[in-house]
Amino acid sequence: MNSKLKALTFSIVLQAQSLNYGEGIANISELKKLTRSDGNMYTFASRQCLRFDIVRLAAELFGWNLQVVDKSKGTVQFRDDVTIEDSEEMDLFGYMKTNKKETENKGGSLTREATVRLSNAISLEPYRSDMDFLNNKGMADRIGEHPNLANVEQHLSFYTYTVTIDLSKVGKDKDIELDNKIKAQRVIQLLEVIKILNRNIRGRQENLGPLFVIGGMYEVANPFFLGRINLKSNQTGYEINTDAIKSVVNSKFLGKEIKQNTYVGFVDGIFNNKQEFVELMNDKVVSVDEFFENLIKGVKEYYEVQ
C-alpha cells in the first residue's frame, strides 16, 4: 500500500431547495436552521440526512445490505450477529451496539468509529422567511369539505458539506480485516453515489450532485476545506470566494503545500470565477467527473487493485 497518501477529503457545493425539516409547530413545517452572529439564519441538512440518502442510493444502485437492524434490546440498532463483513454501512459509517451487561465492554456497548465522516450541509445564502401556503382543496372539493391548511418554510440556496475518509481504517474491525478489493470497491461505490446523490422529500427529488468540489488525497484524514467555502453574489451571478481557499492550498503539512494534492472540479455555467481557480491551481481545475475519477484512481493505487 501507499502509506503516505492514506486519506481523502473534499468539500462540495450544491444547489437545492428545502432539504431538511424539523418537528414544526402547529400547521407550520419548519426547516432546520442555525443562527450566526451576523444576524442571519442559515438552513441546513444534517449529516444524518446525508447519510440516509447515501445509504439509500447505494442500496438501490449497488445492493448494499440494509437488513442488518433489529429491536431485540428495546432500541433499534445493528444486530449482534452482523459485522462489517456483512454491512457496508457499518464498515463506512460505524456502529454502536448496546450490551445489557454493564460490566462488559466498558459501559455496556460495542462501538466502532466511522471511517467516513460527513459534515452538515449548510446553506451559503441566508434564509429570508419564505413560506409556501398549502391546502388539499382538490381532494376536499370531491366530498364537499373544507380543505386542510398548512404553511411550509421554503429556502432555495447553495449548500456546502465536507466528506473525509480514512482509507487505512476501512474494512478493519477488531479481528476482522477484509480483502483490499472489497475495501476499494466500497469506497469507490461511495464516491460514485456522492457524485449523483439525490434526496426524495415532500414529493420532490432534489439533486445533491456537486456543482463545485475541492479536495484530494492527503497524508492525514483532515477536513482541510470545511468552513472555508463562501459565496459571493452580484447582479452578474455567483462566485466562490477564493480568499480562504487560497490560504488553505498555500499552507503546508509536513513540509508540503496542500496544493500539491488538491484538485478543483467545476460544473460550467454556474459560477463566474472559474478563471480565478485556474490561476490559483494551474492544471488542477477539471470537470466534476474528472475530479471523482482522480479520487477513484487514488483509491485503487492505495489498495493496490485494478
Give the gist of this structure.
By secondary structure, the chain is α+β, with helices and mostly antiparallel strands. It is 26% helix and 32% strand.
Task: Give the secondary structure arrangement, pairings included.
Elements: E1 7-17, E2 28-29, E3 33-35, E4 41-45, H1 47-62, E5 69-70, E6 77-78, H2 88-93, E7 95-98, H3 105-108, E8 109-112, E9 116-118, E10 121-123, E11 131-135, H4 137-142, E12 149-153, E13 156-166, E14 172-173, E15 176-177, H5 180-195, E16 198-201, E17 204-207, E18 212-218, E19 231-234, E20 237-240, H6 243-249, E21 252-253, E22 256-257, E23 262-266, H7 274-281, E24 285-287, H8 288-303
Parallel strand pairs: 2-12, 23-24
Antiparallel strand pairs: 1-13, 1-18, 3-4, 4-10, 5-6, 7-8, 9-13, 10-13, 11-12, 14-15, 16-17, 18-23, 19-20, 21-22
Pfam family, one: DevR
Keywords: Antiviral defense
InterPro entries: Cas7/Cst2/DevR_sub_I-B/Tneap (IPR013414), CRISPR-assoc_Cas7/Cst2/DevR (IPR010154)
List key phrases describing it.
alpha+beta; nine-stranded mixed β-sheet; 26% helix; CRISPR-associated autoregulator, DevR family
